Amino acid sequence: MPETRQFRQLASLLVGIAALGMSPGQVWSQSITALEGLPDLDPSNLASLTRTIRVFDFEEAQQRLVEFPDNFFRRSGRTGASAEGFPPFGSMSLSRDTSFSGNWSFKFELEGGSMAARTFDGILPILPYADYAVTTRIRTKGLVHARARVVAWINDKHGEIIPGSRVESPLLHTPETWETVSIEIRGHDAQAADLIVELQVLQPRQFLSQEADLSLPIFEDFFGAVWFDEVRVLHLPQAELRCQGESRIIIRPDRPELSILVRDHASEPLVSNLMVYDLDGRLVFEETYGPSQGKQSRNVTLPIDDCGWYRAVLLVHSGGALTGRRWLDFAIVSDETRTLITSQNRFGVVLPNRSMNRLSQVADLISHLKVGQVVLPVWTRRMDQPGRAESLERLRYLIPRLLDRNIDLTFALNELPSELAQTLGLDPHQVIEMFREDPAIWRPYLEPLLVNFGLEVQRWQIGATGSSDYLMSHVDGSLLVNARKSMSQFIADPQLFVPWPAEHALPSRTAIESIH
User: Fold this and answer.
1) Which is it for strands 308-318 and 321-333: parallel, antiparallel or unpaired?
2) Are 349 and 371 in contact (CB under 8 A)?
3) Would you say 258 and 241 are in contact if contact means Cβ atoms under 8 Å apart?
4) Sign of the CA dihedral 471, 477, 481, 482?
5) Would you list the DSSP string of 262-316?
């Protein structure tokens, strides 16, 4: 079952991606005292209702003699910052060395350790149930190990971070060039009151994941510089794009129906563009709505009859600039009268880990797609004892329905459950290394599957589809022999598969017998 990147993305998205849900309530209050001095109280003049909430251009020093930006403080000044990896080493200052625009920028000079500067509380008041974006320009010089990024989160009125609101940008290394980085912060909480932005330069110990082998030597940068400029905070419209049916499979003669909902707190008109593309990238439908303010809501029946895969894209513009983007994939299939010849059916679906929560819908999806093979993840990291029982109940519902349809099933051990990985001292992705360990340790996590489905399912994939970089560098004959020998104690003649990219040749000397 060789897979292309395009098919893998479409199949995964179709099964696992749901449109963003919106909270129905919208709550906002503004102190009148905070508005004193404004020429009028027209809501359209409030900063929180405009598209651009704030721009930090670091031009303060152009007007008066200051060395540090007005609205930021250095994190090392707060208790506990040194223990978190932010010692008072290095310097931060407004600088004329270089800038993206204007004359000044915010410069961090390293002397070992990580550095961070954060906006003060109350600088960026926000609305509950509203979405925001933070963009900035970053330039680095002399970094080898350290990286720069921007982080943002939402606080409540008590100054406490709202769980789940923290967003981090990618780690950047831009050798003496300016690059733009942008993050989106979802404010779906009634207690949202304040947006905090933090500019960071991090040493590897601060950004290596917990799964990394921190026992190895970790090198830091003692020299180097990072400049930040034009930090913008934007108010984003909220957009939903949905397709009828959970599976997004439309059976002819029905036509696909899309629902569009755009909501915006800002007092600026929006224009929405809906475009639908086929699998070859051809535009097959386009429609424009607006300009309008506040809320746009409509249902669209697409005049598309041809079977195939399609992608719908919704672009939301404000003042000519793109401020929101949503997309989804759907498929149109012929009616149910066609037959399925399993002996000739080479197509399959690789289900992602997140599909475990939607297994009741997967059976219908597989039936509609008429595929012959399914790679089904049976392990996730969150599989403590209650999680294993819940997962087993879902599999008991799904697997008999797939087997009744003559679907060839492959169980995928995508990753180790967290508590098992911790017991074995392994990274969750090191599935194949598990078979070096005592089966008495890992068998309890497999035993429910073996007892319930061991006779019906003999195909097992070691590692997740898409994890081929790890497998290509770690798979060797002894590991596969160990895995096959261990599984043979519980399954008669197990067939072990490893995921492998179709564009890469297998090693000349390998114990791999079966690949996906």
Assistant:
1) antiparallel
2) yes
3) yes
4) negative
5) EE--SSS-EEEEEEEEETT--EEEEEEEEEESSEEEEEEE----S-EEEEEEEEE
Degrees to nearest 5, angle at CA 491 with 487 and 496: 55
Q: φ, ψ for residue 86 (rounded to 5)?
A: -120, 70
Residue 401 CA: distances (Å) to CA of 12, 251, 257, 362:
20, 20, 28, 10
Distances (CA, A) of 375 to 128, 250, 298, 378, 466: 41, 23, 37, 10, 13
Quick: pLDDT tens for 56-85.
999 998 888 889 999 999 987 555 666 677
pLDDT at 89: 87
Q: Residue 446 is encoded by which pair of tokens?
A: 């497999």
In 65-211, the DSSP E strands lie at: 72-74, 91-95, 105-109, 115-119, 131-141, 147-155, 167-168, 179-185, 194-202
Instruction: Tell me which of 271 and 387 has the higher pLDDT.
Output: 271
Q: Find the mean pLDDT for residues 376-390.
A: 72
> What is the C-alpha separation between 166 and 230, in angstroms, rounded?
21
The encoded tokens of residue 283 equal 């535009």
Residues 6+ apart with CB under 8 A from 477: 509, 510, 511
Separation between Cα atoms, residue 155 and residue 173, nearest integer Å: 29
Query: Residue with structure tokens 């709505």?
Result: 289
Task: Identify the three-state secondary structure at position 349.
Answer: strand
pLDDT at residue 12 greater than cutoff 50? no
Q: Where are the beta strands (DSSP E) in 345-482?
A: 348-350, 373-377, 408-413, 459-462
Residue scoring higher pLDDT (15 or 398): 398
Distance CA(211)–CA(193), nearest Å, equals 34
pTM score of the predicted model: 0.55
What pairs with residue 7 in β-bridges?
A: none
Percentages (nearest 5) of helix, strand, coil residues in the chain? 25, 30, 45
**Using CA atoms, how far apart are residues 226 and 138, in angstroms rounded to an integer?**
7
For the chain, the residue count is 516
pLDDT tens string 483-509 = 777 777 777 777 888 887 766 666 655
